[in-house]
Amino acid sequence: MGEAQKGILAMAGACAIWGSMPLIYKPLAHIPSEEVLAHRVIWSLVFYAGIMIVRGRFDRVRDTVRGARNAGMVAIATVMISLNWFLIIFATAIGRNTEGSLGYYVYPLLAVLLGRVLFGERMSLAQAAAVAMAGLAVALLTFGLGKLPWISVVLAVSFACYGVIKKQMNADAVASVTAELAMFMPVVVLIFAYIYTSGRATFGQDGFDTVYMVLSGPVTALPVILFSYAARRVRMSTIGLMQYSNPTLQFLTAVVLFGETFTPWHAAAFILIWTALAIYSVSFFRQENASRRVSSASSGVAATVRKSSSDGSANP
Q1: How many domains does the chain have?
Q2: 302 in any annotated domain
Q3: Residue 305 pLDDT more than 60?
Q4: Which of 39, 42, 123, 316 would you call most buried, defined as having the most Cβ atoms within 10 angstroms of its Cβ?
Q5: Considering the entire predicted model, what is its pTM?
């Protein structure tokens, strides 16, 4: 099996785990979401720190937060990713994973918009139309349900902001996530202080719940490692397309397995989002093909020039 095929399998595994998060956390729906989050952070930190120590790269974790600017970016990233993780757990507990999946569908289109606004990245007319359709979908669902689908909005915004921060961080992927988890530990201490003093703590009282919360660490860490493996071996356009399977699995889990409410307003909003993603994907792949043609043409011209120069020097 070639490296590209291995990368695709790794990416498929990462997306399958991410898309199954509602299914994974459903057995813990009876536990306060903040306690589940706290244990997810603790055991993820143990797992990541162990990897960095085994690899002899724990010094990179310190480098990630060295300096006020780096520490500030890690702090913002910590807020964004912890909020994202909490909402997935919370949405599962209250039976609103349909909104969660919508948020992850909106995310790539919001990322395109932020790339244009913050980094001056080129946005085609088709991509602008796709972003506008995503906004229309959220507005339509808000109108139809009589309330803002805030879980969708916060998930999309938090993950998009997390991507913006990570784009500006020059750090090892595992080291940066380890630093983010370590920075969240004071909040974990406050959560434990609250749940233990109020008598709401579950950890240690039931064998299944306890083991399940401990395993949430490796389950959280594994897809990130698989994603990092795939990113070095697979084209970004392929990775971007495969990531749509994440919210698709969440959507199917919510509607088919959990039987969550799916109104005509939900249907209209999702149709708009799926259409927007189709428009965006076609536009993106056209840009990719055009870039490859320009790159191939430039390489061909350069090769011709080198050959001509070589021929000229051999036959003065």
Answers
A1: 1
A2: no
A3: no
A4: 39
A5: 0.84
> Which tens digit of pLDDT belongs to each residue from 53-84?
998 888 999 999 999 999 999 999 999 999 99
* Residue 314 pLDDT: 41
Q: Which domain holds residue 162?
A: 3-293
Give the 3-state secondary structure of the chain: CCHHHHHHHHHHHHHHHHHCHHHHHHHHCCCCHHHHHHHHHHHHHHHHHHHHHHCCCCHHHHHHCCCHHHHHHHHHHHHHHHHHHHHHHHHHHHCCHHHHHHHHHHHHHHHHHHHHHHHCCCCCHHHHHHHHHHHHHHHHHHHHHCCCCHHHHHHHHHHHHHHHHHHCCCCCHHHHHHHHHHHCHHHHHHHHHHHHHCCCCCCCCCHHHHHHHHHHHHHHHHHHHHHHHHHCCCCHHHHHHHCCHHHHHHHHHHHHHCCCCCCHHHHHHHHHHHHHHHHHHHHHHHHHHHHHHHHHHHHHHHHHHHHHHHHHHHCC
Q: What is the mean pLDDT of residues 263-285?
A: 90
